[in-house]
Amino acid sequence: MRFVFKRSYDDDIKLFKHRQQAGYYVLLLVLMMALPWLVDDFFLGEATNVLILAIAGMGLMLLTGQTGQVSLGHAAFMALGCYLNVILMQRGVPFIISLPLAGIITGIVGAIIAMPILRLHGIYLAIGTLAISVLSEDIIVISKKWTGGVIGLVAEPINIFGLDIDRYGTPILFYFLVLFVTLFVLLIFRNILRAPLGRAFAAIRDSEVSAQALGVNVTKTKITAFALSCGIVGLAGGLLGHFAGAFNHETFNLVLSIQLLLMIVIGGLGSIHGAFFGAVIVGFLPQLIAISRDGISSIFNLGSLPLPGIETASFAFILVIFIMFEPRGIYGVWIKIRTYFELFPFYRKNMFKRQKSYLKTERMK
Amino acid sequence: MSFITLENVTLRFGGLVAVNDVSFHVGEGEVFALVGPNGAGKSTIFNLISRIYNPASGDIRFKDKSILNLRPDQVPFLGIARTFQNIELFEQSTVLQNLLVGRHRHRKSNLLTEMFFAPNVRDEERRHRQVVEEVIDFLELQAYRDKYIAGLPYGVRKVVELARALATEPKVLLLDEPASGLSLEETNDMIFWIEDIKKQMGITVLMVEHDMNLVSSVSDRVLALADGKELAIGTPSQVQSHPAVIEAYLGTGQRISS
Ligand SMILES: Nc1ncnc2c1ncn2[C@@H]1O[C@H](COP(=O)(O)OP(=O)(O)OP(=O)(O)O)[C@@H](O)[C@H]1O
Ligand SMILES: [Mg+2]
Chain B within 8 Å of A9 (Cβ-Cβ)? Predict the structure, then answer.
């Protein structure tokens, strides 16, 4: 067990709790930097996909995990970011400007939509945001002139300072581009969490009345959270467009919205780790299912097994398991394992008994 | 100077008159207590001052200026802090983080500077933490500083809520039943702290409390209410011996004398 002696206020403010922790993250970063040389192109593509999901996960985590506002409409904002980025690029805007701009515009649109929709609470908010996701698909199809309708668009090749970045042509460069955006979003996320705004988010999540009694403008802060969240998700959408190469309204359907939400619930609501853990699960589950399906069919000599809906069913199953046994998600499991080793052999089974996780959007007025 | 003034304030919930033509004022540096049987309208008066409810008629003033045009989240900026009868803490945050939310009204940074944690954000954070640590020292919360609220016992939560209100550096403190549910020892600590809050920090206190021992040890003046109406106002002993007050408590099973 480690005791951290705090000597100054900065000990609470800084990014890492202690040297060792900083060390772990540097190690992880080095590993991520070395990844292109450790794995093949296929796996690197999967890793890139996971990072894009993690960015989107952080976006939704900020809103749902930190601020306590559910959204089932975030695929729509991914779509917006994606289309904006490509449409801007088609009109000659270079990628380094089009992507941030796509994120910012998505954030602004998010803020405008948030004004009416965040008046809803709990389940009503979920239904309201779900409507956004459903509507967005139709809007994409209707705005044929911009979006190419059902045929969709093809992402323009990225060129940064004369460097061509392409998912298939130069997968390593594309991976680094995504990694860079991930780190950028991560830093902003962390900064906000340790600043007054991040605390105001958590305050709204846990008790709106007392947040208000301490001077937090609840409406404004929720809108800020929604806008930030949409902006981040918009960035992820922009990257996803290039990752997919070609996309249309179905790339960003309701299933993606639900997947995003599942991802952060499975990962662990209210923690940054959760967004990453969830992304790994959601990113690799299809592969895992494919591999185990092939394995099973070759053992039993069944030929190719068609199992429609197996992916969705597995998600549902995992989600149910977590809600029943570990509401704090994979992050919760991780904390327990870590504590077990830190305290060995003094770990008690009921150590985490009191800690419950729940979404509380509204209480006594 | 009068800090908080209520003038002929009335509030109805449907047919129920929860606050009925109530007037009183709390002077600077005073400890003023509201007492009365359950459902008398005491917490409702707090919620009126917090602007959660809008009075049907009458006026509420802070330093002789009406606050009826303010939103609830603007009230703390005047220097009015409060606690809640049914503790309203941020459960999934640590004690330290809870108190830091108390600093929100002093926030000078904005979204952009916070996103990049600009140097001025860091300086402000240090300043906030200094104030918060002083409050932690004052209320002896050092042992709980990094603990999550979700795991804390009731008595500690009450103190954390008081601490969070103090972290706002208020001019007026509204305490809704600060001693309810506390043990005798904890109540004695509370008496001691309220006296210090008044004498050393010079903060004006308006409180609701059932514990008459606490009320008579710390209050300068007491207002007794029943069914939303004023019964008597005066020193603790005057109010306790007032016939209307004794009658209001008769048959309620509660005691007014200590
Ligand atoms: N939001 C509300 N809607 C309807 N009626 C309410 C509401 N809040 C309070 N009341 C009613 O107003 C009356 C006064 O309530 P209040 O909470 O102010 O009492 P109190 O004096 O604080 O009592 P206690 O000592 O039990 O805390 C009660 O009859 C209560 O039922
Ligand atoms: Mg009450």
Answer: yes
